[in-house]
Amino acid sequence: MTAPLPAFAGRTYLFRADNGAAFRNTYSADGRRLRWEGLGESAGQWEDVLLHVAEVAPEIYFISWTEQSGITVSHVMDLGRLTVRAFWTYEGEGGRVGELHTGTLERVV
User: Fold this and answer.
1) What number of other Cβ atoms are within 10 A of residue 45's Cβ?
2) Residue 5 within a domain
């Protein structure tokens, strides 16, 4: 038995975080991959990543991925409210740094 496709599969959203970061997130048709593209200060940066996905409630998804740079990202996406709780980690001065953010989604496609 196969799991149903996640509601974000095949769609594109603009994600705006509370720290000013913005991304154009395009999800593959099967919901297993994400191509994120930086906007604003991050313009020109992008990556295609493999996702780990779990639907935790109707229209609420926990997704996570690891980028080539070693950055880890986790999102709790509420597609009903078009909100995100995001947590990412990266290597900083003195070791691993973690940041928790809130954000909004705008469906593009």
Assistant:
1) 12
2) no
Q: Provide the domain count of the chain.
A: 1
User: How many beta carbons lie within 10 A of that of residue 15, not counting itself?
Assistant: 20
Residue ranges with strand state E in 33-108: 33-39, 46-50, 52-57, 60-66, 72-78, 83-92, 95-107
Q: Confidence band (pLDDT; 50, 70, 90) for 45?
A: very high
**List of residues 6+ apart from 23 with CB closer than 8 A:** 14, 15, 36, 37, 38, 39, 42
Does the pLDDT of residue 1 top 90, yes or no? no
Is residue 86, in this structure, part of any structural domain at all?
yes
Reported as half-sphere exposure (CB side, CA atoms, 13 A), residue 54 has a value of: 5
Q: Is residue 7 part of a domain?
A: no
